[in-house]
């Protein structure tokens, strides 16, 4: 008869639980230190600083959650696998501090999810206002330049010597020379000529300025939308994850103490 050897159940080393808790604590402390460094120096009245800081906090927000999970897993192994459950002081129970930290971080990320859209919207409006101001300044400079050109051409038409000198030096295009010479004998046609010469150029530049303004506005709106959606959704997911773990852990701990 063949004998079968009993299958032995692999035992879990206490080192596994200790390692999980130790790595979890180090992960949390390192991430919290990183958060503190991001907040120094604080510039709470600067919306750009708020947006940049919120973005970096949310991007790194998963790290403490991993540390909290490692601590709770190590505690579970130690309390329910290696040794029988026992009543412990909350102040010395790492599960309590991990759950409390998780709850606090859940509240923080929930607040960030509501504050970030306001900052993004305000920054977007400021960027759009700046774009409009720059476009208005460009149009004002354009009108000033065309007004100056109008004065220069008018001065040439009123002074035959300057006109002849400008023609000889090549400052006047060849196709405009006959027209300018005719206008010397027809002062009433000067304004019409200037409008024809400068009007099309003005319209072209104004169209280019308008196109640039529209492109800049679309780019600002697109970037604000993408940044807002990504950070808000990530922050909400982090808030839910932290809150569920935190509240569940605290409720479980207090229920155990009440039962005992």
Form type: rod-shaped
Number of domains: 1
| Run of helices and strands | HHHHHHH
**What ranges have pLDDT less than 50 throughout 5 or more consecutive residues?**
5-10
Q: Structural class, from helix and strand content?
A: mainly alpha
Termini, distance in Å? Answer: 52 Å
The fraction of residues assigned to DSSP E strands is: under 5%
**Helix coverage percent of residues?**
over 70%
Q: What is the helix tally? A: 7
Assembly of the depicted chains: single chain
- The radius of gyration computed from the alpha-carbon positions, rounded to a whole number of angstroms, is 37 Å
Averaged pLDDT: 79
The tally of strands reads 0
Largest sheet: none
What are the main properties of this structure?
mainly alpha, 7 helices, 260 residues, 81% helix
Can you give a write-up of this model?
About 2% of the residues have low confidence. The chain has one domain. With 260 residues, the chain is mainly alpha-helical. The longest helix has 70 residues. Helix 1 runs antiparallel to helix 3.
């Amino acid at each position: 008869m063949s004998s079968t050897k009993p299958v032995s159940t692999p035992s879990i080393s206490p080192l596994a639980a200790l390692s999980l808790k130790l790595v979890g604590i180090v992960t949390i402390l390192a991430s919290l230190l990183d958060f503190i460094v991001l907040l120094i120096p604080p510039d709470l009245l600067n919306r750009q600083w708020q947006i940049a800081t919120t973005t970096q906090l949310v991007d790194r927000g998963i790290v403490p959650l991993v540390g909290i999970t490692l601590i709770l897993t190590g505690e579970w192994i130690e309390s329910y696998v290696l040794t029988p459950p026992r009543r412990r002081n909350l102040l010395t129970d790492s599960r309590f501090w991990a759950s409390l930290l998780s709850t606090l971080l859940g509240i923080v990320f929930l607040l960030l999810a509501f504050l970030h859209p306001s900052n993004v919207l305000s920054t977007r409006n400021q960027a759009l206002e700046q774009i409009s101001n720059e476009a208005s300044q460009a149009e004002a400079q354009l009108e000033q330049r065309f007004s100056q050109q109008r004065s220069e051409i008018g001065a040439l038409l009123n002074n035959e010597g300057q006109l002849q000198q400008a023609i000889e030096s090549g400052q006047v295009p060849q196709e405009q020379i006959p027209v300018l010479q005719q206008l010397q004998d027809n002062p009433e046609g000067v304004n019409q000529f200037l409008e024809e010469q400068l009007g099309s150029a003005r319209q072209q530049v104004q169209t280019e300025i308008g196109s640039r303004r529209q492109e800049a506005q679309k780019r600002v709106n697109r970037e604000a939308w993408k940044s807002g959606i990504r950070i808000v959704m990530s922050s909400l997911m982090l808030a839910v994850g932290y809150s569920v773990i935190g509240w569940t852990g605290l409720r479980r701990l207090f229920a155990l103490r009440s039962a005992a």
